[in-house]
Amino acid sequence: MTTSRRKFIKISAIGLGGVAATTGALNAFGANSYLDDLVKQKVSKKFKRTPTYCEVCFWKCAAWTYTNEEGEIKKIIGNDDDSHSYGRLCPRGTGGVGMYTDEDRLKTPLIRTTVNGEETFRKASWEEALDLIASKFKSVKEEHGPESFALIKHGSPGSHLEHLFKAYGSDTIAEPAYAQCRGPRETGFKATFGSWVGSPEPTDIRDTKCLVLIGSHIGENMHNSQVQEMSEAIDNGATIITVDPRLSTAASKSTHWLAIKPATDIALLLSWMNVIIEEGLYDKEYVDKYGLGFDELKEHVRQYTPEWAYGITTIKPKEIRKTARAMAHASPSVIIHPGRHVTWYGDDTQRARAMAILNGLLGSWGRRGGFYFKEKIKVPKFPHPKFPHPKWDWRDIGEKYPLAEMGITTEVLKAAIPNKDNKYPVKALMVAGTNLTKSIPDRKILEESLDSLDFMVVIDTMPMDVTGYADVVLPECTYLERYDGIRSATNRHPSIAIRVPAVAPKYDSKPVWWMAKQIGERLGLGDYFNYDDFKEVIEWQLKEMGTSLEEMEKIGVKNYPRKSGPLYMNEDEVYDFPTVSGKIEFYSEEFKELGFDPMPKYTVHPEPPQGFYRLNYGRAPMHTFSRTANNPNLNDLKSENDLWVNPKVARILGIETGQRVWLRNQDKITSTFSIKVRVTERVRWDSVYMVHGFGHDNKKLSRAYGKGINDTQLISKVTIDPIMGGTGMRGNYVEILTENPFKNTEI
Amino acid sequence: MVIDTLKCVGCSDCVVACQTENDVPIGYCRDWITETVSGTYPNLDLELKSERCNHCENAPCVRCCPTGASHQIEGGIVLVTHDECIGCGACIESCPYDARYQHPDGYVDKCTFCHHRLEKGQLPACVSVCPTKCMYFGDLDNPNSEVSQLLKNRKYKTLAPEAGTDPHVFYLT
Amino acid sequence: MQEELFTSGRHIPNIDPSLQIWHWPISLYLFLGGLAAGILFFTALFYLMGKDKEYPTAVKVATIIPPIALSVGLLALVYDLTHKLYTWQLYMTFRIESPMSWGAWVLLIVTPLSFLWTFSYYREVYPNLERKLKVFEKFKFLNTVEKFVQENRIYMAYALIPLTLVLGVYTGILLSAFNARPLWNNAILGPLFLTSGLSTGAAAIILLSKSVKERHMFGKIDLALIIIELALIVHMIMGFYAGSQVQLEAVELLVGGEFTLMFFGFVVILGLIIPAVLELIELIGYKIPVVVPALLVILGGLIFRFVMVEAGQLTRFLY
After folding, report:
1. Exposure string (b/e) for C60-77, b if CB count within 10 Å is 16 or more?
2. Contacts of A632 in chain B (CB under 8 A)
């Protein structure tokens, strides 16, 4: 099928009869008649409790779903025994009810078709959709090999599809969470300490004496246990040092806020190292025992004095010294937080290295108040035949980036563009749980890549923008309506949580495990799916782990004792780091051999030209990326993002709070929609700030369509990290347009 | 109720939790988050806090209610009896905090300190869900309760004290 | 720079961005209540002074207005309620602290009284109408009722004096008891509304009157009332300027803001000063069509209520 996917289907009213009337979400609640209300008041509130773990973001907090007697999900409350949430869910988790009640949800499978010359979607039965998908799997395997069918995924549905793909013979699998988010810090920390930071980050915030946030906005990101622990740290009087060009919420609660000039963080980190080494403030015993290449490091940072850093970062040398001393004073109970979304300017692995080295100097890795040794319990794999070995996979696609440890989404997408030199052609793509138009930068390459595909399947709960590119759209039911894999994440102690459906899937949506099994059976891979209901898999796994589904349904979360050793380093023993040398590598031989700087250096990054402002983006605690913009409960809290503009800039441009403006970036890409201005002192005069995840372009998202701007649309300049392929996205500049640029054209 | 503004991050969990616990219709809210920014970059101060009905001691809404639907119960909580409310809107006009609203079903509604949960020995929904644990709830008449101790040891303020309503929600600063 | 905003996107209908709970039904009722109170006060007063023959309009004719005004006003009030099915709850209790409760009960008494008073003069004032309708022939019991009412008129008059004063004042006290709306929260509003009510009542009597003597009498009364009203308004504004920050902001709405034209233009100048001047000129001797100042006063009273209700809801303590 070679229909052009570039014609992104925006309005598809034809043949899609099941769209609910969008007369406002108020109708869902306010239509009670007087008598109805009288009856409701008399009925006592009895709830049924079902255990689950949240899927609104990746923190996977375990929770209890409360369903009333009419079978409606009323509220979701955190599980008290869970170390991810301690009984308190974040606003997204609490608003998860909205994910279920959202009437804009995908209801039936959709297949792309052409009606009267217009491309649109038509409703299809599951039989037809799955048959079509299976036939495409077969044809790709015959013509190009199973490796050419790629999977880009995020979250729980991903694990079921990974299983299917591997059984099918493809390991061309990637998730945006690696190259578009935390990839660089994993590589940077692995090169230093030998292990990934991982998720959740093993930061011992509740016992720390000094928390340094450089590139992390805890409080606006809602990493549940970290926000909770930061609050505890504030109660304990911990020093918080935040480095951010903007007054983030964390910065407002900090003892020291360093208002750094954007793109100069490595300079600050190097000069901190300088102060700590020169003044002898590092943890000598720890560094002597575990440090490798300390002398090289000392020599390397000798030139990076605070005075030098002042000229680059605009932070006064006095402040740099004060904060360095504060950090060292708290050592080893100090955390230089690795951050999470670290793909900024292309040298992000080196910046992560710098942060790791600083942690190493201060002796925080493996110490109380620093980084604890995380552990998770292994969930036994349900028996299945051995997976076939693909001829090439994501490693080959990302071979240019020697230290990439997961699939690089942008490389996988680029591999779809026909190119005679391309050894690893991707011909078909399945997308699950991620909205590519908001997660992948450089829309031009994305659209070119999607356009070149023979076939594309999108699996999602909502009609997100990415569904407009698909050939087949499959409606997934929400996490509240299905069984799923057992959650076992790393933490201070191992724990497992289960997900049990509270209600049956709404409309004609289905869980992904069922879709994977159906497709697998059609491909003759039934042996890999040796069960009728995924419930059997969980029951078997739980029994292997010493518990049962009945027990788990009562408790929701089971905590296990640690087996791998103590939480922190034993001071008497010598810990063996999982690096090549067994020590903390301040000097990375591995990097040197691959041709990269063995120790981080500061490189100058371009600055916005006159009249342009750096586009900075971040999170809001009541939304997860673009996933929740249409959720009725969460949309009520924040229905669109606004553009933070410094008052000086506002004066120059003559704009005021509440005004609507458009943005155009350095490559002349203009935002589709407008955004409201918020004139605030919280943002620096050389940048503007907005929350990511708005500006949806699909009219079927009745609450989110056209609200705010999609910042990813304006990210066209991408600087790729040569070490692991991460896509740096903070190097884009925008000019603010007060007049509607589309006044004379129709979008 | 005592709320620590130094810990509040403005996540609005209290708003959603109240909505799901009390069936507040979408588009209405019983509590909300305010943000106050003062200063000039980079010398800035930011305050985030969660506001709701203050269950005032000297409640103007109780005074002005013509039917007595707005009443105070023992312990100081101000409640509205739905069947006695005629929807005249006087209490909405009288609240200096704009904490009340007209429920689509006709009566006037507001925060009830999750009275139905207090009866079962639980805390109000907003207090029990707050991820930063910045909200505290208890008996102000008991000098040994957590809330009394907090007010004894920390600086605090109330909203619009000049309105003379003697509110029962305190903000630690 | 100081910024204050809602982070959680609060946008409750009718509350944000500014209060829109009370609209024209309330303003209309406040005006009608004041008008009825004014007319009935003069009715009762002049009846008790024994001047019912000298001023027949005041005592007998103009009283057709209060029953209609009060009924329309009550209907407007009930229309404004959002939980109408429970309106009867108003009369299950009397809450001494609530001006609205006072108003509900006073209305309950005054409205029937005004109906009875008008009924007692029905055959005297509208003999032609009665000849056509012949209700007294159809419903014989009405004769007993009429006799009873006419014998007890003096007691009704005694009752009406305080009741109408309460009715006139409470419309202002109702608003001034809301300390959350700085524009309303001042003690002068009660007497001001009472004076305004009395003055509109006098103006209505002038409109309906047929005798020159009566018109002159009420013209003088109305003039005095207008002067008092102007003085009260001046004092009210002075009070705002001497008040706290929120009150200063509140008075800006009237003096230098959205409502300046309505307030000073229609209420003060057109509704008070010009009628006063006109009436003064008439008293001196020049002939002025009497309808003009009377109508202006009534119109001014109506617009005054509208301005106060709308502007007051824009003022608030926080945000």
Report:
1. bbbbbbbbebbeebbebb
2. 26
Residues of A in contact with B46 (CB under 8 A): 247, 249, 252, 682
- How far B1 CA sits from the closest chain C CA (Å)? 20
Task: State the pLDDT confidence band at A45, using cuts at 50, 70 and 90.
Answer: low
Q: Which two tokens stand for residue A265?
A: 């963080």
Beta-bridge partner residues of B35: B48, C5
Burial class, A71, CB count within 10 angstroms (exposed 0-12 / middle 13-18 / buried 19+): exposed
Tell me, what's the pLDDT at A34? 41
**Residue whose C-alpha is closest to residue C83's, from A28, B109, B60:** B109
A610 touches chain B (CB under 8 A): no
Q: Hey, what are A156's tokens?
A: 């729980």
Question: Considering only CB atoms, which chain A residues are within 8 Å of B12?
Answer: 91, 621-622, 637-638
List chain B residues with CB under 8 Å of A230: 132
User: Could you tell me which residues come within 8 angstroms of residue C111 by beta carbon, excluding any fewer than 6 positions away?
Assistant: C67, C70, C71, C74
A145 CA to chain B: closest CA distance, Å? 48
SS3 of B78, please?
strand
Asked, as a colleague might, if the bond just before B131 is cis with ω within 30 of 0, I would say no
Minimum CA–CA partner of A657 in chain C:
C3
Mutate to test the interface with C, among A222, A636, A646, A656 (most CBs of C within 10 A): A636
A378: DSSP letter: P
What is the reported pTM? 0.89
Complex ipTM: 0.93
Query: What total of structural domains would you count in chain B?
Result: 1
Do C90 and B163 lie within an 8 Å CB cutoff? no
CA angle A144, A147, A151 (to 5 degrees): 125
Shortest CA gap B100–chain A (Å): 17
Does pLDDT of A27 surpass 50?
no
Measured between CB atoms, does C261 come within 8 Å of chain B? no
Q: What are φ and ψ of residue C92, in 5° steps?
A: -95, -10
CB atoms C10 and B160 under 8 Å? no
Bond from prior residue into C17 cis (ω within 30 degrees of 0):
yes
Does A314 touch chain B if contact means CB atoms closer than 8 Å?
no
Q: Which of A78, A622, A684 sits opposite B11 (nearest CB)?
A: A622
Q: What is the DSSP letter of A345?
A: S
Are residues C12 and B29, on separate chains, in Cβ contact within 8 Å? yes
Distance between CA atoms of C84 and B107, rounded to whole angstroms? 9
Residue C62 contacts residue C43 (beta carbons within 8 Å): yes
CA distance A92 to A99: 10
CATH number at residue B22: 3.30.70.20
**Chain B contact for A25, CB < 8 A?**
yes
Full domain range(s) for residue B60: 2-172
Per-residue pLDDT of chain B (173 residues; tens, 9 = 90+): 999 999 999 999 999 999 999 999 999 999 999 999 999 988 999 999 999 999 999 999 999 999 999 999 988 899 999 989 998 889 999 999 999 999 999 899 999 999 999 999 999 999 999 999 999 999 988 999 999 999 999 999 999 888 888 999 999 99
Q: What's the gap in Å between the CA of B110 and the closest CA on chain C? A: 12
> Quick one: which of A598, A499, A589 has its CA closest to A553?
A499
Q: Cα(A741)–Cα(A665) distance, rounded to whole angstroms?
A: 13
* Chain C residues touching A681 at Cβ < 8 A: 1, 3
At which residue do the structure tokens 């009640």 appear?
A: A101
Report yes or no: C24 at the B interface, CB cutoff 8 Å.
no
Provide the β-strand partners of residue A652. Answer: none
Do A254 and A278 meet the contact criterion of CB atoms below 8 Å apart? Answer: no
Find tokens 């208002």 and name the residue. Answer: A259
DSSP assigned state of A505 = P
